[in-house]
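Much of what follows relies on a compact textual record of a protein's fold. A complete example follows; check for yourself that the lines match position by position.
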Amino acid sequence: MLTESAQRLELLQKIKDQLKNKPRDLLLFDFLTQTKLPVIALMKMKRVDIENIQPGERLVMGTEKEEGTRNYFIPETLHESLKRFLEEERPSTDDYLFSSRKGKGPLTLQSVSRMVRGWFSQIGVERAGGIRFLRKQSAGHHEYYPKSNTKEAVPAVPILKPVHVITAQEQVLNELENAILSGRIAPGERLLPEDIACQMNVSRMPVREAIGRLEARGLIHTQRKGFHIVSGLSKSNLEEISEIRLMLEPAAARFAALLSSDAAVGELSSIFRKLVQANARYEVDEILRLNKEFHFTIYRESAKPMLHQLIGIMWEKISPYFHIMMRNLKEYDQTFDSELHAKMLEAMEKRDPEEVCRWVKRDIQHAAKSVMSFFDRPLRADA
């Protein structure tokens, strides 16, 4: 029997599945369930207020009744819904995100509440409450950051775009992460917080905090003597990562083939063309970036945020393998990779779930085989 928490999640997923072809409603659903942004402020939000925000950033908002500010973290799944909404609905800069169908004004609280009750009715939950009931179902699952200690009031709808100040810890974390994932810091290399702090002109504290976060994600491990080592590459790890990818990614691709929009398929086609061009020039960083973007454009359409998140974790673990291999193997033939991606694109255009699964599996197997065959060669992470 499912726990109460699991039942609530299942209920939310059913609603989200019902909204997959309604970008505006899906975006509203994600805002209501993934943040505690006041609905009044949400209804007054315009495209210009949020179009440049990135996943992981915080939307700083105030309320009309309270002093101080609240930080509303923008999860990746919410950002994906926002991106899709902007691409498909194409609101003007000064348009409200949630405008009334009868005019250019914003939706009212009553309208939103009726919409929410309608969502529940569509999945067979009658006599459900409105906004408050929906948020109760998502309690404990949203990405909400509590009120800060500042006493300065912020308008409910920002007049000016907020300045996003990146902390020293975030800068150190981003730089270390990029260096490890790109192979600039080689697997097995020892990290000395003192040296990193000196190179980046910061104190040791943000360096140690960043190392701790990277260790929690498995990119770094600490030896008994307290030495921090970049996690090494091994055939056994690669085999396990590939096995897990084969369980997760074809499943996401199957859902995506059935649910994908014309806009997503068009985006996929555009990415493929850029990937072919990058392959022809053998631009390693661009190839790897576009390859990931191609795959995740497919997986995003699965409408399975938890599955999408797990796939992201596996890609993070395999990224150093790809970067180091492609920097050392200049004669690597990209032709077969392009053929596999062309087959995936063709299957997505046909909305053929079995064919998409087939070629995603082939791509994962080909990538694993390529890296595996490279293990006996000397590595040059800085090539």
User: Anything to note?
Assistant: The chain has a mean pLDDT of 79.
